[in-house]
Amino acid sequence: MKRWILLAVIALLGISLMAGILDEIKARGYIIMGTEATFPPFEFRNEKNEVVGFDIDIGRKIAEALGVELKIIDMPFDSLIPSLVTKKIDMAIAAMTITEERKKSVSFSDSYFRAGQVIVVRKGYPPIKTLEELKGKKVAVQQGTTGDLIVSEIEGVQISRFTRFTDAFLELMNKRVDAVVLDFAPARAYVAMYPQLIITSDVLSEEEYGIAVRKEDTDLLEFINDVLRTMKKSPYDLLVEKWFSQ
Ligand code: ARG
Fold first, then answer.
1. What's the chain's Rg over C-alpha atoms?
2. Which of 80, 111, 142 for mutating ligand 1's site (highest number of atoms within 8 Å of CB)?
3. DSSP string for 131-159
4. Is 56 in the pocket of ligand 1 (CB under 6 A)?
5. 3-state secondary structure of 70
6. Are the beta carbons of 199 and 118 closer than 8 angstroms?
7. What is the pLDDT of residues 43-94, one digit of tens each?
8. For the chain, where do the domains classified as CATH 3.40.190.10 start and end?
9. Which CATH superfamily, name and number, covers 3-114+209-244?
10. Are residues 220 and 25 in contact, defined by beta-carbon separation less than 8 angstroms?
11. Res 245: pLDDT
């Protein structure tokens, strides 16, 4: 009899350990998304100081599909992966490039956007077209980003690493650095905001964004990929599915 109870307890414990993060999220009624909100149009603060953008809307779709609320935590970009690993957030949606290095600590969803780094300078200065031409220059990047990585590989560059892109751009406007290196779409958004600035390079890298989750949370990863797949379907795709799938 006693052994029976012990076995039952062990079995129950096993089941509760197996119950994935999805059940936990549904039970608590919210999913926590981590991001870094100085990266328009993916994540930034509007006039009302609310965090909005493309990634936020993706986060909302995921929360909606789960039937829970979306909580957003805005934090330094290089805190996102540590916060995932220590369970402060459930997913990171932050225009985060899928890299082999990051894959050592987290899992990425299917890619949802193509991107690449570009160089932004002040208008009226000699254009900087290639990474090579950054030699001997002062360059601002966001700490821990792929822009930081590729600029760090060039010798003889003086790098200033910022937590917030807004500060990196102030530095450029105030002529304390010669260039900022970042992803193309946010670069375009900042140049539109500061007409004194200009993008002078081609797109210098090939990157793809993914949503990061903890490695063990395979149920959440599958769920996110399903939501992304559904979002990518056109009304036409849905009709074909409706009438021709079987
Ligand atoms: N795509 C680049 C990276 O993964 C930059 C992302 C910065 N994102 C942000 N929300 N600040 O490193």
1. 22
2. 142
3. SGGGTTSEEEEETTSHHHHHHHTSTT-EE
4. no
5. strand
6. yes
7. 999 999 999 999 999 999 999 999 999 999 999 999 999 999 999 999 999 9
8. 3-114+209-244, 117-205
9. Periplasmic binding protein-like II (3.40.190.10)
10. yes
11. 87
187 lines ligand 1 (CB under 6 A): no
Q: Ligand 1 center to residue 77 CA distance, Å?
A: 7
Cα separation, 61 vs 74, whole angstroms: 18
Tell me the CB-side half-sphere exposure of residue 21, using CA atoms within 13 A: 21
pLDDT of the residue at 15: 56
DSSP state letter for 78: G
- Cα separation, 35 vs 26, whole angstroms: 21
- What is the pTM (predicted TM-score) of this model? 0.91
Distance CA 188, CA 57 (A): 20
Q: What integer pLDDT is reported at residue 235 of this predicted model?
A: 94
Closest C-alpha among 169, 121, 99, 116 to residue 141: 169
Superfamily of domain 117-205: Periplasmic binding protein-like II (3.40.190.10)
99 Cα nearest atom in ligand 1: 4
